[in-house]
Amino acid sequence: MIIAKACPVVLRTRQTLEILAFEHPLAGFQLVKGSVEPGETTEAAAIRELREESGINGSVIRGLGTWHSEITGHTWAFHQCRASVELADTWTHFAEDDGGHEFRFFWHPLSSELTHEWHPIFKGALTTLIERLGDNQS
Fold it and tell me: What is the distance between the alpha carbons of residues 11 and 18, in angstroms, rounded to a whole number?
């Protein structure tokens, strides 16, 4: 199986388990993810994408399996990551992707509804993650 995308999953617990997400100015709520480059491991791609899209330096804690997007035909690798510093409740980061965009980062409670603001691809990915993390909280 060719894994085309890597998705770093950053979690925190406040009143409930939350996942790091962002608002793309043109494409709604999303998770950090990006292409795995030739010769790159999915773990390395997850760390690189986390840094490029959010400004966060981190490390991989564990793999969370793969998911196949029916919408794009891509297979994603999920990796739970730990940030090297304590993260704020919200911030913006300018990412160079697609000509450059400012992303607004926030924490999405995993128990919250996935509203229409979520991009359809990421609704599918997040639904899968919620199921996996519900079975294996740590």
Answer: 6
Are the C-beta atoms of residues 106 and 90 closer than 8 Å to each other? yes
Find where tokens 């994603």 sit: 76
Q: What amino acid is encoded at 52 in this protein?
A: E
Tokens encoding 55: 């400004």
Reading the block at residue 67, the tokens are 């998911």
Q: What tens digit of pLDDT does each residue of 74-109 get?
A: 999 999 999 999 999 999 999 987 788 999 999 999
pLDDT digits 0-9 by tens, 20-74 = 999 999 999 999 999 999 999 999 999 999 999 999 999 999 999 999 999 999 9
**For strand 75-83 and strand 5-13, is the pairing parallel, antiparallel, or unpaired?**
parallel
Q: What are the two backbone dihedrals, phi and then psi, of residue 15, each rounded to the nearest 5 degrees? A: -75, -25
